[in-house]
Design brief:
CATH topology of the largest domain: Rossmann fold
Protein name: ATPase
Bound molecules: adenosine-5'-triphosphate, magnesium ion
CATH superfamily of the largest domain: P-loop containing nucleotide triphosphate hydrolases
Largest sheet: 5 strands, parallel
InterPro entries: ATPase_dom, P-loop_NTPase, WH-like_DNA-bd_sf, WH_DNA-bd_sf, WHD_MCM_arc
Number of strands: 9
Number of helices: 16
GO molecular function: ATP binding
CATH class of the largest domain: Alpha Beta
Number of domains: 3
Strand order of the largest sheet: 2-5-6-1-7
Structural class: alpha/beta
Order of helices and strands: HEHEHHHEEHEHEHEHHHHHHHEEH
Length: 346
């Protein structure tokens, strides 16, 4: 048993609690052909999916769509992700034998790099599960994958799992509620991950340190939960570093903040000239427990002059879509305490 490892969990014994969500996921595998796992960054989506698939003992391909971010979002790079995964799994290799391919250093390369080849691959997979982890990254593919998924649901046997941390973007990719969209109205099961409650977060840390044979005080655990809330990815990151010798809280928090800061900066860079408005909105919201629409507007206008409501709505909508802010009772807030502190350093 080891809770404090940084990779996504795969085995039930390393997977802390979240029993309801895990059981829900496993039982949905036999009831639904389409499962959506949602939750902000580091809430444990990938761990839930991998542990659930292993517990259910089903065959699966795991496609990490984040790899598309750095590549040009072409069909070719998407196919490369599939090739790498198929290459790793001997059962999948066997099933695709009838599709033309050659091998380069143990990695399969399909001879024809066309959508019908993708169809052929999925056709051969039977009722295996195909996971599209961080599926919102597929929205920029020129090849319309949502139409393809709809076709697969209608005519093939594969089961589909998608996850996303940029929940608004995932929603826009899937468009279940848009009558014009290929996936409109498809039966699916949504599983939503949430942070651990305070008691569970403390229990997770206590047990994790016990596994590592490291003595810790209740005060330290309290302090950790104060800083990281119930975000299981952060609690794991803290436990991992603390148990491995960095026996002090501040440098660990600092490293976590810098990780998130890099992510936020990347987001702001992709906003181009509008970046400064986004960063001001983030700073305004992070400075308060909860922040109203009019407060964001007031601060932005004080700095940049008049901002039309539609523009502000767009800024806030994008921040929500990317999972940077959340709306609670008509007010905006930053859900992740480390993100909140990172924003102060922008
Ligand atoms: N139930 C769990 N028990 C123990 N550790 C967990 C659990 N869930 C997640 N973790 C740990 O938390 C970290 C984040 O988990 P994971 O990568 O599964 O989350 P995620 O939501 O997919 O994150 P990201 O948004 O970065 O993709 C990892 O270090 C993982 O090992
Ligand atoms: Mg993940």
């Amino acid at each position: 048993m080891a809770y404090f490892t940084l990779e996504p969990k795969r085995r039930r014994e390393d997977f802390y609690d979240m029993e309801d969500e895990l059981n829900d996921f496993v039982s949905s595998l036999s009831k639904f052909r389409f499962i959506v796992v949602r939750g902000l960054r580091r809430y444990g989506k990938t761990s839930l999916i991998l542990t659930g698939l292993n517990a259910a003992d089903v065959k699966y391909l795991f496609l990490d769509c984040r790899l598309l971010r750095s590549a040009t979002s072409s069909f070719d790079s998407f196919l490369s992700i599939i090739e790498a995964e198929v290459s790793k799994k001997s059962w999948a290799r066997r099933l695709i034998r009838n599709i033309d391919y050659f091998e380069v250093g143990g990695v399969i390369k399909f001879k024809f790099r066309r959508p019908d080849v993708l169809l052929g691959i999925f056709e051969n997979l039977g009722d295996a599960v195909v996971v599209f982890d961080e599926a919102q990254e597929l929205r920029n593919l020129k090849f319309k994958l949502d139409g393809f998924l709809a076709y697969a649901l209608d005519h093939l046997d594969i089961r589909i799992v998608v996850s996303g941390s940029e929940v608004g973007l995932l929603h826009k990719f899937l468009r279940f509620e848009d009558p014009e969209a290929p996936l409109y109205g498809r039966p699916h099961k949504t599983i939503e991950l949430r942070p651990l409650m305070r008691e569970a977060a403390l229990d997770f840390l206590r047990r994790g340190f016990e596994q590592e044979g490291v003595d810790v005080s209740d005060d330290l655990l309290d302090e950790a939960v104060k800083n990281f809330n119930g975000v299981i990815g952060w609690l794991t990151y803290f436990g991992y570093n603390y148990a491995r010798g960095l026996r002090s809280m501040d440098p660990i928090i600092d490293a976590a903040i810098n990780m998130v800061l890099a992510e936020v900066k990347h987001f702001l860079e992709t906003r181009g000239l509008g970046g400064s408005r986004y960063s001001e909105a983030l700073k305004t919201i992070s400075a308060m427990e909860r922040c109203s629409w009019s407060e964001v507007k007031r601060r932005l206008e004080a700095k940049f002059g008049r901002i039309p409501d539609a523009t502000l709505a767009n800024i806030l909508r994008n921040l929500m879509d990317y999972g940077l802010i959340v709306k609670v009772d008509d007010e905006y807030t930053i859900a992740d305490p480390i993100l909140r502190r990172a924003i102060k350093r922008i």
